[in-house]
Amino acid sequence: MTLATADPAPLAVLLGPDAGTLLQTALDGVGGRLRAARVVGVAVQPSGATVARYAATVDRADGTSTRETLVATTGSRIPEGAVVLDGPVRVGLWRWPQDPALPALATAADPARLRAALSAAGLTRSAEPEVRVRAYRPGRRAVLEVTGGGPRLFCKVVRPSAVDALRARHDLIGRALPVPPVLAATPDGLLVLPAADGTPVRTLLAGGRSRTGAALPGGPALDALLDRLPDAVAALPTGPRHRPGDHLARAAHFADVLALTTGARPDGLVDRIAAAPRGTHPVVAVHGDFYEAQLLARDGAVTGLLDVDTAGGGHRIDEWATLLAHLSVLDGPARRWGADLLAHAERRFARAELRPRIAAAVLGLATGPFRVQQPGWADHTARRLALAGRWLA
Fold it and tell me: pLDDT for 118-140, tens place per residue?
């Protein structure tokens, strides 16, 4: 098994040559033998707590082989219920979909069990559904697309403690914005949503339809969308350490993660971000993670807004910084659309205050190539750090 290598100890254990021995432990109880594995996702905290996700090929006793997802975690990221190995680094393990922090995942990932759960919620399917995994953050959340036997649905799986707050956000924001309603929810962490109307803006950008600009919403349309967020959203509880979307406050955090994954901490960049003027901005209702993947559109109008998990009280300038940072790390039509939106945003906010926020958001995105184990991730990270510097310049 060949895996990317990095330091310090937790990364060396989870991504190093002995990782296969650890992963085999997760298979011992089900009669499987690990043939091969590769890392497909790594999330690191400044404390060193790490989550690694692997795509594995497993040989079975009956001579067949299966493709499986395995997860290994360290530190505070080990959830109760994981198989735990004690050693120089304490490691927690599990197999998809038996995520101990997401008990509803096993139901959502099994077509027969999901069909029964949907029927119990009044969402009867005429046939066993097809289930496709769209996103998985081990121990945090998963999104699965459901087709066949009825309308297309999305199952969002979260920790049981997050169900009520997430449903309340959808109910509140959905009264004013095109946020998918929660059709059903279960106490163990399963929320069922309809497919949102329109085409994902990321798809429009990838398809090049934005060359004329007609298919994408302009700055005024996005401002109008954000203006429709109910005022009550600003009072919703969020993380205790910083406001939603406040990348300036997280710049040191991003730098700590980069130091763990690359061996070098971009202190000069962090110092320049910290020294930038912040200005005075009112606390208003914000989405908290506002970028192109969260938007659906048709003929220049926004028809869907996704992932309101982080909605709360924040600064509108940070919403624009998040979007512009995401667009600036993409190529082609995204860059052109970003240039149009930047011109709009700089008519609303002082350039000296907006651009450092964009730089801080790009600094956060610099951890992405390592997180998804992109080939040549070190070069991609270096380019994003250089881009953050250009935003500051």
Answer: 999 999 999 999 999 999 999 99
Distance between CA atoms of 317 and 279, rounded to whole angstroms?
A: 10
Domain 199-392: assigned CATH number: 3.90.1200.10
Quick check: 232 and 180 in contact, CB under 8 A?
no
Q: What is the pLDDT of residue 207?
A: 78
d(CA 304, CA 179): 6
Q: Where are the beta strands (DSSP E) in 45-177?
A: 50-60, 65-74, 83-85, 91-95, 130-137, 141-147, 153-158
> Same topology for domains 105-194 and 199-392, yes or no?
no
Evaluate if pTM is beyond 0.85.
yes
Contact assessment for residue 155 and residue 108, using Cβ atoms and an 8 Å cutoff: yes
Residue 79: name the closest of 22, 140, 133, 137 by CA.
140
- Backbone phi, psi, residue 357, to 5°: -65, -40
pLDDT digits (tens, 9 = 90+) for 270-295: 999 999 999 999 999 999 999 999 99
* Strands of 65-74's sheet in order across: 32-44, 50-60, 65-74, 91-95, 83-85
CA 319 to CA 286: how far, in whole Å?
7
Backbone phi, then psi, for 243, in 5-degree steps? Answer: -75, 155
Q: Which of 229, 252, 233, 232 is nearest to 242 (CA)?
A: 252
Architecture, CATH, for domain 105-194: 2-Layer Sandwich (3.30)
